[in-house]
Amino acid sequence: MIKVHCFVSCVCEIIKRTPGVDHRPFYFGVWDADFSVNDAVELSYHSPHTRHNEFRDWYKLLYGISIEPWYNPEADKETNIQTLVSLVENRPSDRQVMVMLDLYRLPERENKFHQNPFPHYVMLEATDNPGEWFMSDPDFRWEGVLPRARILESVRSPAAAGGFYFDGLNIHHTPAETVAAYFAQCMKANHNPFTDALRCILRAHTGPDACQPLAHLPHAFREIPVMAIRKYAYEHAFAWLLEDQGKQAEGAPWFEAVCEDIERLVKTYTQIQFRVLKLVMSGNNDLLASVEQLLNEQDERELAIKTSLLELFDDWQCYRNIGVPRTDTEQAPLEVL
Amino acid sequence: MRVNRHAAIKAALQQHLPNARLSAFTGSARLNADLAIDSIMLLQLIVHLELEHGFNLPEETLLTQELETVDDLARLLVANDHKEPSL
User: Fold this and answer.
1) Which of the 8 DSSP states describes residue A335?
2) In A, which residues are within 8 Å of B44 by CB distance?
3) Closest Cα partner for A241 from A152, A310, A313?
4) Among residues A57, A38, A55, which one has the least CA distance to residue A46?
5) Among residues A300, A226, A205, A232, which one has the least CA distance to residue A36?
6) Which one of A43, A114, A269 would you mutate to disrupt binding with B, by most B Cβ within 10 Å of its Cβ?
7) What are phi and psi of A58, to 5 degrees?
8) Which of A99, A183, A242, B16 could form a disulfide with A249 if both were Cys (CB 3.0 to 4.6 A apart)?
9) What is the pTM of this model?
10) Distance between CA atoms of residues A115 and B51, nearest Å
11) CA dihedral over B16, B17, B22, B27, signed as positive or negative
12) Is the ipTM of this complex over 0.95?
């Protein structure tokens, strides 16, 4: 699995290692996971207020594990660093210690986004060498040993503030009824918040009613790739709902066609970004209509994927003989990173 | 006259993308890992090549081809006779 969502990847790692329990249902919440649009009408995958409460609540319901925050936003950075050091160096073997750091400050780590800053969750363990810690970064499928001081420097970044721990002693086998309830909570069948937000940002920077300079639009759209890849979470949902019914996913023509649609959805966000850059760099306003057109196509494409997924979900409910009312929930969106 | 695609890529990087690690520039250099060109910088680079150097990269190529190295990018650029940015 490529990088999709760092918080989710960290907490799913222990689930993936537990026989008989599947982490993929937890990705239901990822394709429309929350993001922020700041006062300058710029897209941001992270906000200082992000606490991941919805994901934490559902993780407890799905797998029986409590994710506890250890980072105290009221305390200063050095106090939090001391808490982290204590947690890592006194860690019971079944405990996972997560911390948000600024990956941009670890240039020794390959980081394809090269964004400055790049807030990102990883998990840490002490080693036999007091000057080195072991870092596990399941979102980028990377693990290795780094100097403790270098890691703490990246935690000291003003852009990073957050951390959790959880113990993996009693992981539940996921009850189907809870999975169904989680799906119903997550599924926004009639709208696509990410594409809607891109349309609002575009209109805030273009046209007669623009409240922001056109020249700022590329920066406002800068983080599109970090969020576009969340749409790959659909693949996990389709695969799991098929396989849990004893059907084949990988290699099956229907599933492969769905994956192609998802791929197209993800990559068309790049196309949108490309046309926006052309619009701003060339001054050719004719391109604006073509960006709007692509956004409309994205809505159609994603709603069609959601329709297919809802049909598959209905089949799965029949197979599992459970019934949860299917609604387009209007509850608070999930928090993100 | 055959325009040198690699030279155009290098010139566009030099002029517009100072954060790229130009010292590592070769045909086989990886755009992201070696030259530190992220996805947005890559798109900017392509637009500069279109607007100023007479090349473009068809959008379908952008969606279907992996652009990992300078050579990949050079191979997929096509000569562009008009100055208006293509859709």
Assistant:
1) P
2) 218, 277, 281
3) A313
4) A38
5) A226
6) A114
7) -75, -30
8) A242
9) 0.87
10) 26
11) negative
12) no
